[in-house]
Amino acid sequence: MPARAGLARLRPHWPLLLLLTITLLAYAPLWDVAFSWDDEALIADNQMTGDLGNWKAFFLQDLWSTTRLSTLKSGYYRPLMLLSLAVDRALFGLHSGEAHLHSLIWHLLAVGTLYGLVNRLLGRNPAVLAATVFALHPVQSEVMALVAARNDSMAAAFVLGALWLLVDRDGRWPRLLGAGLLALLALLSKESAVLAPLMLLALDLARFRRPGGWQRYGALIAALLVYLPLRRLADLDAAIAPTAESLRLVTEHTGQILGTYAGLLVWPWPLTPARHVHYLAPFADTLPGLVAALSLFALAVAKGKDRGLVIAGGAWALLTFVPSLAATFDKGLLGERYLYLPMAGLSLSLVAALPRIPLASPLILALPAFLALQVRLPAWKNSQTVWSDAHAVAPTAFTAGGLAWYHHRDGDYTQANTLFIMALEGEPPYRDVCEMIVMSLLEARQPQEAVRVGRWALTERGCPADGMLLNHYAVALAGVGSFEEAARVATQHPRGLNGPGVAVVGAWQAVQGNLDGLAQAAARMPDDPSFLTRVAKLLALGGRADLAAQVRALPSPAGGGAPR
Fold first, then answer.
1. What's this model's pTM, rounded to 2 decimal places?
2. Which CATH architecture has domain 383-552?
């Protein structure tokens, strides 16, 4: 009897089960997708998630400090995300297929909780349509394809679940306790869950014109009061404040940013994760998307069946989108993943506006979305295919630089160097490639081109003369026999003689005939036994094979005879 009763309760919700099945099939290509982009650092190279026994440490760490970039302070406190990655590795190792399936489960949970919430607000058919838009809109694909973005679906599932429990203004303690727990889990997945009380307030104002039931808000605030001390334990109290330059950058490009995102909502193509604020389409090109999105929302407010919920959904979308601007302030990046939770609000606005929703309408919407995903998901096969597709569909200096990095990593220096130069030729130049561009040409055994490009990068493209570029340029000069200029460049480094510059100056000493001084310098560096070998290589590269042989014959730093 209990089983039959359970089935009877589920029977009216068969469209949701069908939607979940379609969503599962739509994202099936992810089974063959490798870890890509941020996945490589946060998952494949993570230094802590390989052992579930580290779970306590997850609550004491910045998200990105668990990677090889351990000194990086992102300000992201997401211990449940780290725990989910550790569970993946404990169960499946570093198999990307199972990790993507795990991410998909969180997406299905978010779809289900949105359905449950909208079902209570507006009924089954609107709930199915809202869940369909949320589940299959093509901009959602980035969160599914990028395991490192799983925290978005985790936080959404928990936040929507908490609101589902509270939406009826039911003050019974089991619901309050459950909602508070879900809100806490959401906060431990992603910081934007702090907006849950405002999302509840928007619903209350839409339905009752006033807040209702302080206990409901108390449950969400209690979760926040538990979360804040935990975050403090991880030494993440200080927010990452935007710089004056980043504020200026975003302010100048506000229209393009909003137009780009609005256009993706209305016409989600081309889909690409590689957008940078410096290289967005001109505002005139993004304006139609912005006008279309705002016009549709204005029409929904003016003519919609339930204007209050239309506005509440819009408020959700705006509230949950604004925190994503932190990434744009910090690194200039835009991402389709930042529309994930806002899509829940827009889905609510859509169904609240429609006067009548036939049950067939979700299926009509699902078909083109399903097909679009089949076109999009194969681009996520690996990091290089992601960036190759990004550079093909929306080429910029930013995509050229990103794709160049992966070609360089894979040893394809010819393609990498072409793209590095393309990135630096852009307007504005994409200067993140400055540290790599001369080194890559040297690795390709093109010292003459390395000298030309190094001089161009420093004098014409604004590359800073305070990093490895200057040392690589000095090495390139030595490689074409300009040892005196090479030594002058190396000694002009703002941080003093360092890195490859030390060997460059050593080569210049040898050219001047000061082999005794070179041997003494090597003796003062017992922890660098390869110093003389590097000097000899530079001399040979610069056409001084005679001197290279003499340097090789000098005593090693440890005094044990000639270096091999």
1. 0.91
2. Alpha Horseshoe (1.25)
